[in-house]
Amino acid sequence: MKTAMNILTRPAAQLVLIACLVLPFAACKKEEAPKAAPKAALTAPTTDDSVAWRAYVSDVVTRNMGEISSQPYVYLLPGESTADFQGSYDRLLEKAQGDVARGIVSGNMLAYASPSSAKMADIVQAAFKDVPPDTMKGVKVLFIGDAGDNDRVKAVVAPAGVDYVFVEAK
User: Fold this and answer.
1) Cα-flanking dihedrals φ and ψ of residue 83, to 5°?
2) How far apart are CA 118 and CA 11, in angstroms?
């Protein structure tokens, strides 16, 4: 027993004992993965290509989610050169009006976009025209379109008490 005590009092033996105790903890530390650089924002398509517009709108919506954790309501109207544009417009108008009329609870996002910004602004105006004041607090409304349509969309959604965000499609 005296020999074991003599060994533990030697400085070299103490260092070995400390290393044996510390090494397992050091080995457990996970190596942190390098953080990837954020992807560059996509630019708005210059055509009515629906696939390109879907990718662009998805990118803009994702970048503007902020504190929103639920799946956003995304309304994407195709360009006016698309076959059956009027049918698409009518169906999207009906859906947007129905969703807003049922009520959107705090913590949700409504995103509106189209190559035909003016037509999408018409849909937003129609959907929000009868919404009672301050009934949509905590709801984020994202409008992706032309700067010329921003003011009229903002004017119609503001009374509802939403958090309005405009992104110019460029």
Assistant:
1) -60, 140
2) 81
Which secondary structure element, helix H or strand E, spans residue 32, and what is its range? none
Which pair of tokens denotes residue 162?
A: 């939403």
Question: What's the one-letter identity of residue 138?
Answer: G
Tokens of 105: 């609870």
Q: Locate 165 and state its tokens.
A: 């965000």
Whole-angstrom distance, CA of residue 103 vs CA of residue 131: 9
User: How many whole angstroms separate alpha carbon 166 and alpha carbon 109?
Assistant: 13
Other Cβ atoms less than 10 A from the Cβ of 93: the count is 18
**pLDDT confidence tier of residue 35, bands split at 50, 70 and 90:** low
Q: What residues form DSSP beta bridges with 167?
A: 144
Three-state DSSP at 167 gives strand
pTM: 0.77
What CA–CA distances, in Å, run from 86 to 6, 90, 91, 162?
A: 93, 6, 9, 29
Residue 42 pLDDT class (50, 70, 90 cuts):
confident
* Averaged pLDDT score across all residues of the chain: 86
Enumerate domains of the chain plus CATH numbers. 50-168 (3.40.50)
15 pLDDT above the threshold of 90: no
The two structure tokens encoding residue 38? 């954020």
Alpha-carbon span 10 to 51, nearest angstrom: 73
